[in-house]
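Obj.: predict assembly geometry.
Materials: sequence records (below).
Method: joint structure prediction, all chains together.
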Amino acid sequence: MCLAIPGKLLEISTDVHGVRMGRANFGGIVKQVCLEYTPEVETGDYVLVHVGFALSKVDEAEAERTYAALQQLDQLGELDTPDVLEPSESDHAFFNSSS
Amino acid sequence: MKYLDEYRDEELARKIVDEIRRITTRPWVLMEVCGGQTHSIVKYGIDRLLPNAIELVHGPGCPVCVTSLEMIDKAHAIAQRPDVIFCSFGDMLRVPGSECDLLVLKSRGADIRIVYSPIDCLKIARANPDKKVVFFAIGFETTAPSNAMAVFQAKKQGIANFSVLVSHVLVPPSIASILQSPLNRVQGFLGPGHVCTVMGYREYEPLAERFKVPIVITGFEPLDILEGVLMTIRQLEAGSWRVENQYPRVVNREGNRVAQDLVNKVFEVCDRKWRGVGSIPKSGYKLRYDFKEHDAERIFEVKEIDTQEPARCISGLVLRGVKKPHDCACFGKECTPEHPFGATMVSAEGACAAYYAYGRHLEANPQTADVA
Ligand code: SF4
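Observations (raw structure tokens):
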């Protein structure tokens, strides 16, 4: 139940009770989200949504930085390879799930 | 970027695993705090990609699992009243109370409804003015802003027939309780990314300092978890204990101030009993007196119920990372998600249920020997 997933904000509105709401697209499924906690977000932004509430904006620059840093990893590794390595398990099945 | 697919890239996962292998010189025990992380780890087999020297133990971070039996029994007592519509997140329905679960009560005629969001309960309350609509407000800090908003709006909009049965739990006191235990084996933590989206990670800094443990706030996708492990191992190998943030795309040090303000307006900190663990001081939220008209515990005077868990269930030890599901003689035999005995089998995010869902009850105990 702690699932929170990113969705793209399609539309922002205010409901009859004055609550800031919006509609977000989660990989094809469109759902209503409450935007009271993310006053800064705009249409087109990605928001992290949990039980119908946007909890934060997904920071695009940070997302790219994390990803880019991971892609640099093997270059660092080559600079400083220790003498003894454990046997490689690179034939190990990655992400053994079907979904 | 769509922020999901990129973080499931197998080639990058391989690179991170290689780097972890390269820097690991001795055995380490890490705990992922959050049940969502446990689920990802078992689903993607992340614990099996790691070098044998690194053991992942699973933490207490499944709010469905740790909701106390007393609280479940209170929920059942309220849900059975003829004037009540009882609303809950779907994964609470199968959680066993002393006698049965909510699903059984529903089949006996109780009006029990699954909602996606607590805010949906306000619509139900408006549409059913002659009924009392009660929401079972459980969760960690991640869910607190949503539940707080439902209560706040109910008061503001004058929806008098809406109330919440609150059983909120907080992560930092549970980490402290794990680290204080003489049985503790955990040397580093993958911190709960979504809890910190709301709360920030300032409150983890005194914990890291006091117990000299690295805490790396970590996301939920396979690459997030692998990078969180890498950052934690780097710290352990270097002998440092800082709070680091692997998940900066949604977490910053301060958290979401707007959400924190409303949470503090609606809730106050209280002692809370955790299923399988016992009472932990200052480890939960309850409603403030200002919102007493929406407090189901005050509205329905449910007497304290004394309850007992099956003696053979070791879920309390599983929740604290002392034992794994395979160490339990009942795991996958008498105890299954269909007939759960204890806390960690009751929700898909519990360690026993996650192991079961991905077929690990069919395997021999893989741990031990080369780890210790
Ligand atoms: S398998 Fe069942 S009985 Fe054993 S620890 Fe897990 S929840 Fe308890």
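Conclusions so far: Residues 368-372 of chain B have pLDDT under 50 and may be disordered.
To do: check interface contacts against the pulldown list.
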